[in-house]
Design a protein that fits this description.
Blueprint lengths: L7 H24 L4 H26 L10 H7 L11 H7 L7 H25 L3 H31 L1
């Protein structure tokens, strides 16, 4: 996974792969949902991850990086990996998620778990990084994940109040 001595370019490519893994997780979960509101939760989270992927690509390509892919699809191919945010194996996360019986509240709980793990992962990774730019990058990613966690937690609280 991460050694701690990654360059900024390598860290960006790694983070892009994690965001892609999370996007794939949310898209797969959404495709299995029977409840439209639950599907909507996962699709909206996939869109958030796609936004992160686009931001990371801009950073990656803005570094006058000769390896910069022409399209986000090409970068997705270059960054393919088995992990998602939080450092979990995508295949394991999908096995754990029994989406056949999820309602909107369960979908929100799954998203809370995922975003919480992502925040903790980036915080720990930031502490291990030797490169100060990579530290800052991962601290920022952790902050973004905490904001998502707060937003989803608010939605979950509203869901519970509405019951």
């Amino acid at each position: 996974m991460l050694r701690g001595d990654e360059s900024l370019v390598d860290a960006l490519l790694f983070a892009f792969g994690l965001e892609k893994g999370s996007c794939d997780f949310y898209m797969t979960a959404a495709s299995k949902m029977e409840d439209p509101k639950s599907r909507e939760v996962f699709l909206s989270m996939a869109e958030v991850e796609k936004g992160h992927m686009a931001e990371i690509r801009l950073l990656y390509c803005g570094m006058e990086n000769e390896a910069c892919p022409v399209s986000i699809e090409e970068m997705s191919e270059a960054a393919k990996g088995p992990f998602m945010e939080g450092g979990r194996l995508l295949a394991d996360a999908l096995k754990e998620l029994d989406v056949a019986f999820l309602d909107r509240e369960d979908a929100l709980k799954a998203a809370v778990k995922q975003e919480g793990q992502a925040s903790v992962f980036y915080e720990k990774a930031a502490k291990r990084m030797q490169d100060s730019y990579v530290k800052v990058l991962f601290k920022e990613f952790a902050k973004q994940e905490r904001r998502h966690l707060e937003e989803i937690s608010r939605l979950l609280a509203q869901e519970r109040i509405a019951e």
